[in-house]
Design goal:
This is Alkaline phosphatase. By secondary structure, the protein is α+β, with helices and mostly antiparallel strands. It is built from nine helices and 22 strands.
């Protein structure tokens, strides 16, 4: 296999035109001042933060980052952010062998100094390491950063995944006193083969201020940067939210060794948004002064999300004329013989939330994405088909303003958006699809739901499971009951049990864990960031059924 095929484009030799041996996270390009003031301006009220403070990387190291994403048996994405204009350089290694070096695209102000390289022709089941750095037009280079990842095997083999969501919500950001965003550290400690972030990567609509005073009088102290102090209403503010999360040491440790599959939900834009919405003071908790048209906010939010997430170029370029996926962000990420991950976009195509129970309204996925999901899951030959949704499919809302998902709480025959879910589940049954599991975060508690047609009002589907885990770095919320239309039974649930919000704590920070053994048996664990396994189940795969001719 040629080096050029492996790296997806032309390869230069180690002693080629550019000097090698730099990387991205080491700092700014030589001779250029930092463009981004996030790390310089980060502050904690009333006292300085020493350089060794847990949870925060200080100085120039804090404003550059590298990560991997959408890694399949033969492909993957390397992503980096610099601090000034520069050309991304990548050197790929496997073991002691240097495979080659690629000159990637430029990171410029137009991309918030981010750039990515898509790798093709990788070998399944192999460990890889990469050095990433930026080269300036004046010949200067940044210092090196290193990331590692393992491609999944294309033959039956053990594989693991973790999932969660909900980062920096309710005004709780990076607190050096608390050790930073500990949920990310808990995931890093598990060393999964891949981490699936189920959405709410940021809370663009919720300000992060210097301090939060708890009911008991204790004080939570946040690191604060320029662009997190009000609801995001400019592209710079949306971008600044992502840069803020990347300041955290736990996040950086996870990204250095674990590929990410990233999807978005509502808070990347604003709470419970839908296309065409116009925000008012009655519908928002925090005041929007410069921009209230959600379609405008969502365009900026989508650009910032895609700039800062390691999503493949082919996907981004395949759906839009501007270099961004102007519509959906849904995709399939093959993870080997035993696992396919289907990453949904339940925001872009939805109808208005108040129409969630009416007939004839657009649902959550839309026609194109619904057809794609049915087609791709039906065609999947992986043992387990894990559908990563950005919100649960089986919960009943507590209030009218919670009509944001499929469930409407009447427990009867499908209405409104529920027709879309009924269509999907029935199509899976008709095609003989088995071993479908749904995972999500969103609701800030952890739960296990089993859907059984024997307990359902609508029964044209085969039994399946949904597992919920989150938040990763936000408040835990109170729990909700399942909607019974599709026969959901809540076998486990844990969330906040007091009548007020509390600062994030390890025993209320929730992470899901999946482990598939070589024989295809799936173990699912609902865990907290303290390392406790709260609940678990072992699922044996079921052979697919051949539908009648």
């Amino acid at each position: 296999m040629s080096r050029s095929r492996l790296l997806g484009q032309s390869v230069i030799q180690r002693r080629g035109v550019l000097a090698l041996g730099g990387g991205v996270v080491g700092g700014v390009l030589l001779g250029r001042p930092p463009v981004d003031g996030d790390a310089v301006q980060a502050r904690v009220t009333s006292r300085p933060v020493p350089r060794s403070t847990p949870g925060l990387v200080r100085s120039r190291d804090a404003i550059t980052h590298a990560q991997t994403g959408d890694v399949t048996p033969t492909s993957g994405v390397l992503w980096a952010r610099g601090t000034a204009p520069g050309q991304l350089q990548v050197r790929l290694r496997s073991g002691s062998r240097v495979i080659g070096t690629r000159v990637g695209p430029a990171g410029t102000a137009d991309t918030d100094f981010t750039a990515r390289v898509s790798l093709a022709g990788l070998e399944p089941g192999r460990d890889y390491e990469a050095d990433l750095w930026f080269a300036g037009s004046d010949g200067t280079e940044s210092d090196p950063t290193h990331v590692s990842f393992t491609t999944p095997s294309d033959t039956p083999a053990r594989t693991t995944f973790a999932w969660s969501g909900d980062t920096c919500g309710q005004g709780y950001g990076i607190s050096p006193d608390a050790g930073g965003l500990l949920g990310y550290g808990a995931v890093a400690d598990l060393r999964p083969d891949v981490f699936i972030h189920c959405g709410d990567n940021i809370y663009a609509d919720e300000p992060i201020t210097d301090t939060m005073v708890e009911v008991d009088g204790s004080v939570w102290r946040n690191v604060v940067t320029e662009h997190v102090q009000r609801p995001a209403q400019t592209l710079a503010e949306f971008r600044g939210r992502y840069r803020y999360v990347l300041l955290d040491e736990n996040v950086r440790r996870l990204h250095a060794t674990t590929p990410v599959i990233a999807q978005w939900d509502d808070h990347e834009t604003t709470n419970n948004w839908y296309p065409g919405e116009v925000l008012t003071d009655d519908t928002t908790t925090f005041r929007y002064t410069d921009e209230r048209r959600v379609d405008v906010l969502a365009r900026m939010a989508r650009q910032a999300f895609q700039e800062h997430m390691p999503i493949g170029e082919a996907h981004l370029l395949g759906r839009g004329s501007t270099g961004f996926a102007e519509k959906g962000l849904y995709r399939k990420v093959p993870r080997g013989a035993h696992l396919d991950v289907f990453c949904l976009d339940q925001r872009t195509f939805r109808g208005a939330n108040y129409a969630g129970t009416t007939e004839g309204e657009p649902a959550l996925l839309g026609e194109e994405q619904t057809e794609w999901l049915i087609r791709e899951v039906t065609a999947s030959r992986a043992t387990w088909k894990v559908i990563s949704a950005d919100q649960p499919i089986g919960l009943a809302p507590r209030r009218q303003q919670d009509l944001d998902g499929y469930g409407n709480g009447d427990h009867g025959a499908p209405r409104g958006r529920e027709h879309e879910l009924a269509r999907i589940l029935s199509a899976f049954k008709a095609a003989g699809v088995r071993n479908v599991v749904w995972i999500t975060a969103d609701v800030h508690f952890t739960a296990a739901h089993r859907f059984d047609p024997a307990d359902a009002t609508y029964a044209d589907f085969d039994p399946f499971w949904e597992f919920i885990s989150g938040p990763l770095a936000a408040c835990a919320f109170g729990t909700k009951e399942p909607d019974r239309t599709f026969g959901a039974t809540q076998l486990y649930v844990k969330g906040n049990t007091v009548d007020h919000r509390r600062a994030p704590r390890p025993d209320q920070t929730y992470v899901g864990w999946g482990e598939i053994d070589a024989d295809g048996r799936l173990r699912v664990e609902l865990r907290d960031a303290a390392g406790t396994v709260l609940w678990s189940v072992d699922l044996d795969p079921v052979d697919p059924v051949t539908p009648p001719a």
